[in-house]
Amino acid sequence: xxxxxxxxxxxxxxxxxSIVAPARALLPQARFVYAADxxxxxxxxxxxxxxxxxxxxxxxxxxxxxRPRLIVxxxxxxxxxxxxxxxxxxxxxVVGTVPAIRPAALISRTRTIGVLGTQATVRQxxxxxxxxxFAGDCTVLRHGSADLVELAEATLRGERPDPxxxxxxxxxxxxxxxxxxxxxxVNACTHFPLVEAQLAAAAPRxxxxxxGGDGIARRIDALTQGQDWPATPGEGIAVFTRLGDRExxxxxxxxxxxxxxxxxx
Length: 265
Ligand code: DGL
Fold this sequence. Notes:
Elements: E1 7-11, H1 17-26, E2 32-36, H2 48-66, E3 70-73, H3 76-89, E4 94-95, H4 101-107, E5 112-117, H5 119-122, H6 125-134, E6 139-144, H7 146-156, H8 163-174, E7 184-187, H9 196-202, E8 208-210, H10 213-223, E9 236-240, H11 245-248, H12 251-255, E10 259-264
Parallel strand pairs: 1-2, 1-3, 2-9, 3-4, 5-6, 5-7, 7-8, 9-10
Helix pairs in contact: 1-10, 2-3
The structure holds D-glutamic acid.
D-glutamic acid is lined by residues 11-13, 15, 41-44, 75-77, 118, 121, 149, 189-191.
Binding site for substrate: 11-12, 43-44, 76-77, 190-191
Active site: 75, 189
Family: Belongs to the aspartate/glutamate racemases family.
């Protein structure tokens, strides 16, 4: 019998598409379901309690409906806050997304790293721990931006936001004491790689950007080794917790990434 169970990607919005791309490149036959909690978006301005209460319940409903073989929490905010609770609630392998501080520390020459995430992510003890373990000899400067999440969503809807808004986001890192030495920026929110070109153009000096996408794709590949896939991946499904005009405006952006069917949870 052909195993057509999908891999389910979960985020508050479209950010998780930055994880879908490298996963698709590595697993071209896999079926993907993309789930966005549009009714709960944005996560970055929510409390830890709200996220920890909301995400495991939603994933339980999604797992029941789509019967995935594996779930990817394609969201740093949900992963850094609720990964243990999510794993406890589900009887499935779960891959999380956490800030790529380790790869950043491996390549930084100035030993000054910027971490760009949501406000909720950058305040997590999880980030302190990663910085201590993997970037002990680096200065790690953080900045949380809700506007950059909005900018990524708008870009995926086909809008072209004012470049000055990207400048303002990066000023939040570079204008901190010691910020002028930043040579690597961790995109610690899955939305941000979607606007990496705009960020690079806004940077006051050349910097390298890193994120967890490739590492997560390799992890998915390792966890599904030896499993069967259908001959063709079929239509990708994008499911939203609220499917209104804002979400419908994403139709072309989702379609070019392989998600041609839209549903509401
Ligand atoms: N994409 C998400 C992350 O990686 C969250 C964005 C938001 O909803 O604030 O953190």
